[in-house]
Amino acid sequence: MLPENRGPGGARQYGFDNDDMCDYVMFCDADDRIMPFAVEFLYTYTKGANADVGMSEILHERKNGISDILENGENSTWLHGKIYRCDYLRQNNIRFNEQLRVNEDGNFNTLVFGLTEKIKMINVVTYMWCDYQESLTRKDTKAFAKRGNWQFLHGSITAVETLLTKKELDNDYYFQLIPSYYSSYQGIRGVDGEYGTCRDDLRRFFQIPNVRKILTNKSLLGQLSDKITVFRRIDKTPYYFEQSFPDWILEFSGIDIRNLE
Q1: Total Cβ atoms within 10 A of residue 45
Q2: What is the pLDDT of residues 98-157, one digit of tens each?
Q3: What are the DSSP calls for 223-254, one per residue?
Q4: Nearest to 241 by CA among 177, 205, 176, 190
Q5: How far, in Å, CA of 97 to CA of 41, rounded?
Q6: Residue 73, C-beta contacts closer than 8 angstroms, at least 6 positions apart
Q7: Taking the CB of residue 64, how many other CB atoms lie within 10 A of it?
Q8: Which of 8, 33, 112, 156 has the fewest CB atoms below 10 angstroms from its CB?
Q9: Phi/psi at 99 (5° precision)
Q10: Which of 123, 104, 100 is nearest to 112 (CA)?
């Protein structure tokens, strides 16, 4: 048992650091479920492919018992339904950031998927993300969204900075990041205190040369614009952003994408 509360990431890291018997590791939240065959499927197929990571589909339970399936391309942020090769994590010093008390899996998986191409996709549901109303993410969804957004931004951007010390990232990678950063920031825009720390993270992100190249190239900017949404849903209710995408870009990069020559 941990002598102090280190958050979900700290608890997982403690368990990982104190076990050297396993060649692969999985994680499951206490209020979720794994399917009876999950361990066998994930381990057998991932190890058989000599992959560093195996990822499956997730059954996302919602209110009134209605569920939907998050396929492989939709669930790379979460730990759910995944298995990781232990030596791969250790060799690349991939650890949970214990400063993040929510969305710590986003930081972890940004590093995991950014440092390997040996990923096994398994088109089977192995994990149920349960609709437990007293959970951290569902007890107060609006408050969690605010707290989670800044920690997602901080965790993801610091992970990207770590990746850039090891490899170059292509445009497609940034095409995924920039829309999610825009959407996440709108949920905490105008809020001070700890939420405001991600503003410095965003300013650093927009100084990355390849990001600035995208923002100053009309063709690349057009590809990026197709991925931008102007609202988020919380409890099925759409909330439209007050700040436009061009104004957000101008605020953090100093580039006016409306007036490119």
Answers
A1: 17
A2: 888 888 998 999 999 999 999 999 999 999 988 766 555 555 555 656 667 888 899 999
A3: HHHTT--SEEEETTEEEE-SS-HHHHHHHHH-
A4: 190
A5: 29
A6: none
A7: 6
A8: 33
A9: -75, -20
A10: 104
Residue whose tokens read 């190239």? 217
Please give the pLDDT value at position 227. 87
CA-CA distance, 58 to 70, in Å (whole number)? Answer: 5
- Give me the tens of pLDDT residue by residue for the chain, a chain 261 residues long: 677 888 889 999 999 999 888 999 999 998 899 999 999 999 999 999 999 999 999 998 877 766 788 887 677 888 999 999 999 999 999 999 988 888 899 899 999 999 999 999 999 999 998 876 655 555 555 565 666 788 889 999 999 999 999 999 999 999 989 998 998 898 787 666 666 778 999 999 999 999 999 999 999 998 998 889 887 776 677 778 889 999 999 999 999 999 887
Distance between CA atoms of residues 215 and 212, nearest Å: 5
What lies within 8 Å, CB to CB, of 189 at 6+ separation is 242, 243
| Token couple for 238 | 């759409």
Q: 61 and 128 in contact (C-beta within 8 Å)?
A: yes
Q: Are 79 and 27 in contact (CB under 8 A)?
A: yes
Label the pairing between strands 53-61 and 119-129. parallel
Closest CA to 112 of 66, 64, 71, 162: 162
- Structural fold of domain 1-138: Spore Coat Polysaccharide Biosynthesis Protein SpsA; Chain A (3.90.550)
